[in-house]
């Protein structure tokens, strides 16, 4: 990259240096194993292979057919589904395609509200998944838990075709089995979106809703620790052909075979013992982070976590998402300033979302996460306009440098 792309290469190296000096607490964050990065960078970037294994519109696809079929077979076996599609370019796009495949225009969708922790691609007004359909949402109870009774009441009244749920900022396990029962009571389909927790699901640390859902999707990143830009789509056999068509050619062009190769490798890696140990540590570390934040005097949204995700509740403060991001960022910490539902008497609706996956991959243990929780509490305690505390920033940098990205992912 000396003559062409040198300027971009310098920026890439600078980004890598910044990453190594900072603490990555992004809930979606992880570090992709080297084998997948290498798979995404080889000659298959040139391959044209429109269609599906055994059903291509061009010749010379024997090997890529085997690669994609392995990815499909592994996806079905790891998550226990009748059918799988591995081509979607992101989980947002998978959700768009799934809803088009299983719903007709004008039909009704019941979803977990995005402000309560659901995802924008579950039919929110500003997303294309709300087009041509009626959408209503259920949220949280007074103690910030997913409101199953509210969901049941709404389902009976609204009679949806599909119930979709999945968490993007709700740190608790979703009771997908209870949602299955509700769907059965009203004759609706259940669509489970496990984008954040799929890694935990794969190793049995979270209930696996795939076998009893009509359709399910997950991104390849987040706790699955794969590269960004990918999704797995699972379904009962009867929906498989419609979902395949809705992804390609309904929404995307021919699947990039280098990405499909990486997915096949990923679905093998996540069955190895090291991945199960990693996920156990991720969950333990999430709980340790909660303890550190509590020791620093902070409340947690929903009272704690069942997953890799930790959300500190700042509804009783002067913080705003827009002041939280630079306050943490300037101290070398990346996470997300978010809004959560405001209850009666709350001053505010601000919260800050952390995740334990990335720093667990960098080798941080429970004691380290507890220390981080206390340090984050010190930053929050200074208030929105206090600027940078160089002492805290230095401590954060030392912790980051003591936990380098390991060589098997770098
Ligand atoms: C992150 C997320 C998505 C979108 O994933 P992308 O692959 O980034 O498009 C979808 N659903 C849920 C629940 C998510 O958390």
Largest sheet: 7 strands, mixed
Q: Which bin fits the share of residues in helices? A: 40-55%
Low-confidence stretches: none
CATH superfamily of the largest domain, please? Type I PLP-dependent aspartate aminotransferase-like (Major domain)
Number of helices: 14
Give the strand content. Answer: 5-15%
Seen as an oligomer or otherwise, the chain set is: single chain
Order of neighbouring strands in the sheet with most strands: 4-10-9-8-7-5-6
Bound molecules: pyridoxal-5'-phosphate
Protein name: Serine hydroxymethyltransferase-like domain-containing protein
Keywords: One-carbon metabolism, Pyridoxal phosphate, Transferase
Organism: Methylobacterium variabile
Modified residues (N6-(pyridoxal phosphate)lysine): 222
Describe the structure.
This is Serine hydroxymethyltransferase-like domain-containing protein. 41% of the residues lie in helices and 13% in strands. The chain starts with 5 loop residues before the first helix and ends in a 9-residue tail after the last helix. The radius of gyration is 22 Å and the shape is globular. The relative contact order is 0.16. It is built from 14 helices and 14 strands. The mean pLDDT is 96. With 410 residues, it is of the alpha/beta class. It has a 7-stranded mixed β-sheet with strand order 4-10-9-8-7-5-6, sandwiched between helices. Helix 3 (62-79) runs parallel beside helix 9 (257-269), helix 4 (91-102) crosses helix 8 (237-247) and helix 10 runs parallel beside helix 13 (366-381). It folds into 2 domains: 35-269, Type I PLP-dependent aspartate aminotransferase-like (Major domain) (Aspartate Aminotransferase, domain 2), CATH 3.40.640; 273-401, Aspartate Aminotransferase, domain 1 (Alpha-Beta Complex), CATH 3.90.1150. Pyridoxal-5'-phosphate binds next to helix 4.
């Amino acid at each position: 990259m000396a003559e062409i792309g040198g300027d971009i290469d310098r920026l890439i190296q600078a980004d890598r240096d910044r990453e190594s000096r900072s603490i990555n607490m992004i809930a979606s964050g992880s570090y992709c194993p080297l084998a997948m990065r290498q798979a995404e960078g080889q000659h298959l970037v040139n391959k044209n292979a429109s269609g599906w294994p055994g059903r291509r519109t061009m010749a010379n696809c024997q090997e890529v057919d085997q690669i994609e079929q392995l990815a499909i077979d592994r996806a079905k076996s790891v998550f226990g589904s009748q059918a799988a599609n591995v081509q979607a370019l992101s989980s947002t796009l998978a959700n768009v395609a799934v809803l088009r495949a299983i719903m007709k225009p004008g039909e009704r969708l019941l979803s977990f509200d995005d402000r309560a922790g659901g995802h924008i691609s579950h039919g929110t007004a500003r997303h294309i998944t709300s087009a041509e359909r009626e959408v209503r949402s259920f949220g949280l109870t007074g103690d910030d838990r997913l409101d199953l009774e509210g969901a049941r009441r709404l389902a009976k009244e609204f009679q949806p075709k599909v119930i979709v749920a999945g968490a993007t900022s709700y740190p608790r396990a979703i009771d997908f089995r209870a949602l299955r029962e509700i769907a059965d009571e009203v004759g609706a389909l259940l669509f489970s979106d496990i984008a954040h927790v799929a890694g935990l699901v794969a190793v049995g640390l979270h209930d696996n809703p795939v076998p009893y859902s009509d359709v399910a999707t997950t991104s390849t990143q987040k706790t699955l620790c794969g590269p960004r830009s990918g999704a797995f789509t699972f379904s009962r056999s009867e929906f498989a052909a419609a979902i395949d068509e809705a992804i390609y050619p309904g929404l995307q062009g021919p699947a990039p075979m280098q990405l499909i190769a990486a997915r096949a490798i990923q679905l093998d890696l996540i069955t190895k013992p090291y991945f199960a140990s990693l996920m156990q540590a991720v969950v333990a570390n999430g709980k340790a982070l909660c303890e550190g934040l509590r020791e620093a005097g902070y409340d947690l949204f929903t009272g704690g976590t069942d997953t890799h995700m930790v959300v500190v509740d700042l509804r009783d403060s002067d913080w705003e998402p827009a002041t939280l991001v630079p306050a943490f960022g300037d101290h070398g910490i990346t996470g997300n300033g978010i809004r959560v539902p405001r209850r009666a008497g709350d001053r505010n609706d601000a919260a800050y979302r952390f995740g334990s996956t990335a720093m667990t991959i960098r080798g941080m243990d429970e004691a380290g996460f507890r220390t981080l929780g206390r340090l984050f509490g010190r930053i929050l305690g200074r208030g929105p306009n206090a600027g940078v505390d160089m002492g805290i920033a230095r401590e954060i940098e030392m912790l980051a440098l003591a936990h380098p990205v390991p060589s098997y992912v770098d």
